């Protein structure tokens, strides 16, 4: 067979199978377009020069999107291959050799991927311009314009390499599908049903154990760092449990329904349950895949939106005023007690020197703090013992060590602009982890204090478990610097060192004030923090996270639509003959439609319900992970989660409506 004849076969095949091939081309092109956009941002000069922290996120996004796009396209090809088995068998019966069939497949794929490549590159570039402007808007940078997003040859090359890898992978899979298989076997594959599957009790038990352990980890893990370490472990167990239970437990449920004579022997239930049992094994894998994808969309978008919406509050929490300067030489009170006051005077002098003309300093504060590592034995705070789950000499369990911000009440009031007074036997206490605030009395240093709990105000850039301990007097604070020691790498102990900070706002600020202040502090051993600069940084990071979350969410959603579409179309062709038989034996069209409707509802609603349960169970561990981004209120995350879920349900129902209509048309 020459190339011309093979090409004619390939073109006719594409036209005959357009119901399957066109969605494959469009969905693959969309996912690869998103990947092209990520590749193009990697080498975009505007991004590299203006947002230096963003390329790290984009690199991560390229890897994640590449993996999922590859999986979804290979998975979609599975439906195409199964549909084409009869066609390949007919070629064999007509006398074509397998090498001829391989040539036809190769040409078909070349044409398909030629379309995919063209749409991906052109669509990726055009959509990329809009996404580029959207990205910069998320990062609060309005200086970008369309000219800052030129065509990227680098992205073109990487995208074509990725497309080539998929092309080769699919070709190998398709060739292996027909290799060493006779035409009769290929036809049998086309018409092969799944049969009534057996109840797989062992698989059900394994699924329940995997899902239960994943849920257990998600619900019981406490602490940001532990959540970070075990989140992917919990996710893996939940995914495995989901697949196992859809494959096995769904069969058990259907067989229980079948054994319920009163329920099963009703016309609608009889046909629906029997039909679902007949090919549930094939449905189960698709349903589990849709469930996992739905859960991924909900969690990804909920988390990234929560991160983005907390930017302003996090910035104000980390840097309470527009400007702050911090002494880089921490003061050792024990060896140099007079140096604290000298540093305070120096910092205030720098701030006073920075203003000129009508500029005035507003709402200044002077703070002195210790940031140190502590251990907690029951209600006693001790200096680090680095022990977890052990028993101390007092017989009390040593809690997980954590960090503590210690400061006197006058420093706390100065920063927070409050006027709180506490008694000598009281201590103000707060933490970014509520479970740490269970004590009404604590032993701090060598004395017991009553606890007055205040609202969490731990800086949002501290992601680990941390206390804020506010002492009633400065003397208690200074004594604490000697009691709560620090260790160097050799194990030598030193008093905790005090950090001195001065912060302020500016009234009637001149246009060159920031540059002037930076020049004053650049030659001194002083750290300058500007709230607007910090805001810009976290807008870059968090805006980048949101952008990445949206792109990954779009890939997941496209995968969901693709799998749902192919499931409905393939099941429609499989069911058409059965429903024609039902009509021939006298079953009314109304009953046939009800039967098909109940099966479609079962297959669509079940993944959504399970995805909702998964996302609600995961909300605790995801919320704890968001502590890394300064998100402390569970209600904020849940509100965003509910909002995303509501929008997703609407989109999911639209997918259901479109794909179910296609199914009904095929069945009729």
Automatic annotation (TrEMBL):
It is found in: Cell membrane. Its main location: membrane. Keywords: Cell membrane, Membrane, Transmembrane, Transmembrane helix, Transport. It is a multi-pass membrane protein. The keyword Ligase does not apply. It comes from the Bacteria. Residues 62-183 form the ABC3 transporter permease C-terminal domain. The chain crosses the membrane at residues 20-42, 54-76, 110-134, 154-178, 199-218, 230-254, 284-308, 545-566, 600-622, 634-655. Belongs to the ABC-4 integral membrane protein family. This is ABC transporter permease. It comes from Peptostreptococcus canis.
């Amino acid at each position: 067979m020459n190339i011309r004849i093979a090409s004619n076969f390939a073109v006719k095949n594409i036209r005959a199978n357009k119901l399957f091939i066109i969605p494959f081309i469009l969905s693959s092109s969309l996912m690869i377009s998103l990947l092209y956009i990520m590749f193009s941002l990697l080498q975009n000069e505007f991004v590299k020069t203006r947002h230096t922290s963003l390329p790290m996120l984009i690199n991560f996004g390229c890897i994640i999107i590449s993996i999922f796009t590859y999986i979804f396209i290979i998975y979609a090809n599975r439906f195409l291959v199964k549909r084409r088995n009869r066609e390949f068998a007919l070629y064999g019966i007509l006398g074509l050799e397998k090498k001829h069939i391989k040539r036809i497949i190769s040409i078909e794929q070349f044409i398909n991927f030629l379309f995919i490549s063209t749409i991906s590159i052109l669509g990726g570039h055009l959509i990329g311009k809009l996404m580029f402007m959207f990205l910069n808007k998320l990062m609060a940078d309005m200086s970008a314009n369309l000219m800052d997003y030129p065509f990227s040859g680098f992205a073109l090359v990487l995208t074509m390499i990725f497309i080539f890898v998929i092309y080769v992978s699919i070709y190998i899979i398709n060739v292996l599908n027909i290799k060493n298989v006779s035409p009769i076997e290929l036809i049998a594959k086309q018409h092969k049903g799944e049969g009534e599957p057996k109840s797989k009790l062992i698989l059900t038990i394994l699924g329940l154990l995997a899902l239960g352990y994943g849920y257990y980890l998600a619900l019981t893990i406490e602490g940001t760092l532990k959540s970070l370490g075990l989140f992917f472990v919990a996710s893996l167990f939940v995914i495995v449990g989901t697949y196992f239970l859809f494959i096995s437990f769904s069969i058990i449920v259907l067989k229980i329904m079948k054994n319920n004579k009163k329920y099963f022997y009703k016309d609608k239930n009889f046909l629906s349950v029997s039909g679902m049992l007949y090919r549930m094994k094939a449905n189960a894998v698709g349903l589990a895949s849709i469930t996992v994808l739905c859960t991924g969309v909900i969690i990804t978008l909920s988390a990234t939106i929560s991160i983005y919406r907390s930017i302003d509050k996090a910035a104000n929490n980390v840097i309470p005023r527009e400007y702050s300067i911090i002494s880089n030489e921490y003061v050792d009170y024990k060896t140099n007690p007079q140096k604290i006051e000298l540093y305070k005077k120096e910092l205030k002098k720098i701030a006073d020197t920075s203003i000129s003309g009508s500029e005035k300093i507003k709402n200044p504060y002077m703070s002195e703090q210790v940031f140190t590592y502590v251990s907690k034995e029951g209600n006693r705070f001790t200096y680090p013992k680095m022990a977890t789950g052990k028993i101390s000499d007092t017989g009390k369990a040593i809690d997980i060590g954590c960090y503590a911000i210690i400061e006197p009440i006058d420093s706390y009031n100065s920063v927070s602009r409050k006027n709180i007074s506490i008694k000598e036997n009281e201590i103000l206490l707060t933490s970014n982890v509520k479970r740490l605030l269970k004590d009404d009395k604590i032993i701090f240093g060598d004395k017991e204090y009553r606890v007055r709990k205040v609202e969490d105000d731990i800086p949002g850039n501290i992601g680990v478990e941390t206390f804020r301990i506010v002492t009633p007097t400065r003397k208690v604070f200074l004594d604490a610097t000697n009691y709560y020691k620090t260790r160097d790498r050799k194990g030598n102990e030193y008093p905790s060192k005090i950090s001195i900070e001065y912060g302020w706002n500016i009234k009637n600020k001149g246009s060159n004030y920031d540059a002037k202040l930076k020049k004053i502090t650049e030659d001194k051993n002083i750290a300058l923090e500007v709230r607007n600069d910090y805001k810009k940084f976290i807008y870059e990071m968090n805006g980048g996270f949101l952008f990445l979350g949206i792109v990954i969410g779009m890939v997941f959603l496209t995968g969901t639509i693709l799998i749902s579409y192919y499931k409905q179309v393939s099941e429609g062709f499989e069911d058409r003959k059965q429903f024609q038989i039902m009509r021939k034996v006298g079953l009314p069209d109304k009953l046939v439609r009800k039967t098909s409707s109940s099966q479609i509802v079962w297959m669509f609603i079940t993944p959504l319900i399970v995805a909702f349960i998964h996302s609600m169970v995961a909300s605790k561990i995801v919320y704890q992970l968001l502590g890394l981004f300064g998100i402390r209120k569970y209600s904020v995350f849940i509100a965003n989660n509910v909002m995303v879920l509501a929008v997703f349900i609407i989109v999911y129902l639209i997918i259901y409506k479109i794909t179910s209509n296609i199914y009904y048309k095929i069945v009729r």
